[in-house]
Amino acid sequence: MASSIPVSTYRLQLHADFGFAAAAEQVPYLASLGISHLYLSPILQAAPGSTHGYDVVDHSLVSRDLGGEAELVRLAHTAHEHGLGVVVDVVPNHMAVPEPLHANAQLWEVLRDGRDSRFAHWFDIDWEFLEGCVGLPVLGESPAQAVRDGNLVLDTHDRQPVLRYFDQLFPVAPGTKGDDPLTVAGAQHYVLDSWLNKATRLNYRRFFDVDTLIAVRVELPDVFDATHAVLIDLHRRGVLDGFRIDHPDGLADPEGYLEMLRDATDGAWVVVEKILEGDEELPRSWPTAGTTGYDAIKAIAQSLVPDTAQQLDRVWTETGGEADLHAVEEQAKREVLESLFQPELSRLVRVLVRVAIDAGQPPDSHREDRYADELGELLAHIDSYRAYVRPGREVDADSVARLNRWCDRASAARPEMKASFDRLRGLLLAGGTTSEAGRDLVVRFGQTCGPVMAKGVEDTTFYRYHRLVALNEVGGDPSLLERPDTSALHAWAEREAAHWPKAMTTLSTHDTKRSEDVRSRIVAAAGDPVGWEATWAPVREAAERDGVDLPTAYLVFQTLVGTWPIGEQRLVDYLRKAAREAKRHTTWTEVDTAYEERVFALARTCLTDAAIATVVEDWLADLEPSVRATTLATKLLQLTLPGIPDVYQGT
Questions:
Q1: 4-63 pLDDT, tens digit each
Q2: Domain co-membership, 86 together with 224
Q3: Which residue range or ranges hold the Glycosyl hydrolase family 13 catalytic domain (predicted)?
Q4: pLDDT means per 10 residues in the chain (651 residues)?
């Protein structure tokens, strides 16, 4: 029988074509590898067609798509027969806004009954906005145009009236039936609108900028109980041994949540997907075994990155790429605030207005614009996912230092607003405030920081700043190229052994931008700056012929080095995503097809041009001993450092 605390884990990404029964077939092989636990992706019922499970629609049900509870129990039994345990991924922060909506029964009822619904308190909705309605900017046009075009029509579902928009259904509140779809839509507890108007219509908290994931108020005891009952029961029955917590920084009170989970499971092994930035450490008061290991990726990378910053700096700046990483990050955070997070910024502004009213400040017609400017400037200067200010508790020293640093940076950038940032500093550090609006501000600001960091840094900066892309990883730090250092790894290992000996270590996950082998090959290649420049030269020449900007071409070059040989479609699909995430020349919502085709043409040239292929292949052959050493050293370090190593090989 396996121990309840893992020694090592093997991550399995479950989906309809690889469910519990298929996973059970792999158990003998996995046991032969020497692991102690299977680590499963989310197991609760997800949205129709989900391929990942992070879009839960029913917490009361083990996923039918994966085989249901009976197959999960059989999987656990098979694992136990081979001496293995089972840990699972938990998604406490959000649920799906699915298609069709009725797949999420709680959300369907809220949309039908509004604030009177028994589930209204489940979801993080700003009910004071839109006059007590839920904003649903999900249409491709205005409601009136949708009706005129015959896209928004009256229909029935389960013998009840509904509004239909293509495959999506919307509930109709009792007593609001009619013959005109537009009139019926206007009588509901939700406001339909074009997706283009989400900045002024969306009034529920999301996971990052994903409109189809609505935040759940798991900090409320009855919501926690309802959303965790099945998982806790499976743990008590010995089916599950532990839990990996997805995105704890989205929660109103991460530490409070972990305390609730500890109490409900009698102290089960729990790790958290926490991104640690710079020298940040996991709060030692948290009742958790530690992180899921992105900090291990960073520590290992710093110990193996070559001392070639000077040469790679020159090559990168010659492409025209921005040399100042912090400037790129700050600009990217400003851009995502403007383009992605206006709903979140607007809600913060509304909360700050309530704080001012509570403080007896006189009406001010310019207050909202001023507050938006202040909050936006402050958020542009954050450098970690969150400060942990818990209303009603003393603020820890690390959070005080973090908020002070952010306010000082904002004041330095906008000295004319220093008084405003000092005021915000006081409000955001007021853990002991008794003002409801003040407490809401503290919590909601914390919840907004993570999305700005994730989308501004990981999902924008890391697709713009290509000095050495192997360091552009989740929880990573591209500036480590300037600080190759084995002593930092030793210091990290000592801290882990002392404080988090049962935390997870990892190298590849379902979220990493590149696999560990790809990163290792690029790192090894960077140790040969002469070969690096010689191999880049023909790619650069091809980019100039094909009309592709050199910073993007430099990403193409490093991707080829890391993945060669790679299929054309896979490379094109990756470059499409990378170019759109960079948001320089094309985006997901404003596609520049001509630009993208030039990038794809460059990719095809690099794959089919014999001269380029020969240069790449000859260099990689020369690098093979270094690549092998770097790859094996990376894996050896992960497996032997303090912590519980996780292995993941994709879907």
A1: 899 999 999 999 999 999 999 999 999 999 999 999 999 999 999 999 999 999 999 999
A2: yes
A3: 13-472
A4: 86 97 98 97 97 98 98 98 98 98 98 98 97 97 98 97 98 96 98 96 97 98 98 98 98 98 98 97 98 98 98 98 97 98 97 92 83 98 97 95 98 97 96 91 98 98 98 97 96 98 97 97 98 98 97 98 98 98 97 98 98 98 98 98 94 58
Q: Are residues 154 and 81 in the same domain?
A: no
Calpha distance 334→345 (Å, rounded): 12
Does a structural domain hold residue 650? no
Instruction: Kindly state whether residues 42 and 85 are assigned to the same domain.
Output: yes
With residues binned 3-state (H G I as helix, E B as strand, rest as coil), the percentages for the chain, rounded to 5, are: 55, 15, 35
Range of the domain at 380: 329-458
Number of C-beta neighbours around residue 495 at 10 A = 15
Residue 270, SS3 per DSSP: strand
Q: How many domains does the chain have?
A: 4
User: What are the residues facing 242 on neighbouring strands?
Assistant: 87, 269
CATH at 560 = 1.10.10.470
Residue 167 lies in a domain: yes
Q: What is the pLDDT of residues 156-213, one digit of tens each?
A: 999 999 999 999 999 999 999 999 999 999 999 999 999 999 999 999 999 999 999 9
Phi, psi dihedrals of residue 231, rounded to the nearest 5°: -65, -45
Shared domain for 340 and 430, answered yes or no, is: yes
Chosen domain end from 232, 249, 273 = 273
Q: Count of H helices and E strands in the chain? A: 23, 18
* Nearest by Cα to 254 from 379, 124, 388, 382: 388
Residue 602 belongs to a domain? yes
Alpha-carbon gap, residue 571 to 290, rounded angstroms? 35
Nearest to 406 by CA among 430, 372, 382: 382
Evaluate the omega torsion of the peptide bond into residue 100 and state whether it is cis, within 30 degrees of 0: yes
Whole-structure pTM value: 0.96
DSSP secondary structure code for residue 458 in this structure: I
pLDDT at residue 359 in the model: 87
Pairing mode of beta strands 644-647, 9-12: parallel
